[in-house]
Task: inverse folding
């Protein structure tokens, strides 16, 4: 188990058994002190704002195909690797569970003929993520995330697993910073 900290953020990283691909699934539990759960959920769902704070976004938009909202996301990869793109659906719900407000976001990759693969970019065909956010009982949030993707291509499995192991906690640190900026720019 690995633990990372940034001032008031702590996320232990649990690594699950590998999929048939040899890649790992990740579970993260942690807290974002002083970040209310609604703000965290709003930042996570705001694709336009994500383009401003996520340095790895090359292209990101949502379209409706056959009555279903689909997200296209191209991610910048470092040279000499090819960029990756994702086509996925996601659903967000605000729930009341025994008096506790809980925000749940589910996402998974889909194949959509209107979003064909692009030359020079590798399509991530296996992606799934679950995010649960609730109040920590104070001014902050408790966060649970489950994450898996298979970036495809010729990247060694050990490198993919290392990147996910360090990248997922780094993403959560970035979202904390984004939440602080979001509340300043959106008057939250």
Result:
């Amino acid at each position: 188990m690995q633990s990372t900290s940034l001032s008031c953020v702590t996320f232990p990283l649990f690594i699950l058994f590998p999929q048939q691909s040899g890649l790992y699934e990740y579970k993260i539990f942690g807290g974002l002190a002083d970040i209310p759960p609604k703000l965290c959920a709003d930042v996570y769902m705001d694709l336009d704002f994500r383009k401003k704070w996520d340095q790895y976004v090359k292209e990101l938009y949502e379209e409706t195909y056959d009555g279903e909202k689909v997200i296209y996301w191209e991610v910048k990869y470092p040279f000499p690797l090819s960029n990756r793109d994702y086509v996925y659906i996601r659903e967000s719900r605000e729930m009341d569970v025994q008096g506790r407000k809980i925000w749940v976001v589910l996402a998974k990759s889909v194949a959509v003929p209107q979003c064909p693969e692009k030359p020079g970019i590798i399509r991530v065909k296996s992606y799934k993520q679950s995010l649960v956010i609730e109040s920590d009982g104070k001014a902050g949030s408790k966060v649970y995330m489950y994450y898996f993707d298979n970036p495809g291509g010729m990247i060694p499995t050990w490198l993919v697993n290392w990147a996910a192991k360090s990248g997922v906690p780094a993403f959560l640190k970035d979202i904390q910073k984004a939440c602080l900026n979001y509340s300043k720019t959106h008057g939250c």
Remarks:
- The radius of gyration is 17 Å.
- The chain has three helices and ten strands.
